[in-house]
Specification:
Length: 125
């Protein structure tokens, strides 16, 4: 599903990062949060108390399902990406940022994605 979504989007020019769709972007963070809620809500129904990703990530840490370090990485990137995206949209630009401006944040998010969906990261309640 995630790969199909990515393929359906126009690719940014070389050196640009699509804040929403590129690997390590907003959609990856949102998919991971949705996955964790679907995976663990039966055992931790409190995960459905919040609808925003930042509070859900905090709940995942509270229930021992996510490390604090990974929560912090995800929250910081998510907030930063949303802020940049909002600024670009106000200027009527696509949500594309110079890749170099983002440092290693997309790589960190992509690594967490890899750990989660390769079964190495989350604590299986």
């Amino acid at each position: 599903m995630r790969s199909r979504m990515q393929a359906a989007q126009p690719a940014p020019a070389a050196g640009l990062f699509d804040l929403k769709q590129d690997r390590g972007g907003i959609v990856d963070i949102e998919f991971m949060v949705q996955y964790w809620v679907l995976r663990f809500a039966a055992d931790y129904p409190e995960l459905t108390n919040h609808t925003d990703n930042i509070h859900i990530l905090a709940d995942l840490v509270e229930f021992g399902l996510l490390t604090e370090g990974h929560r912090q990485t995800l929250v910081e990137a998510y907030r930063r990406y949303l802020s940049i995206e909002q600024h670009l949209r106000l200027m009527e630009h696509r949500p594309w940022e110079e890749r170099v401006e983002l440092g290693d944040e997309p790589d960190k998010i992509a690594q967490i994605w890899h750990e989660v969906f390769r079964g190495k990261h989350y604590v299986d309640g």
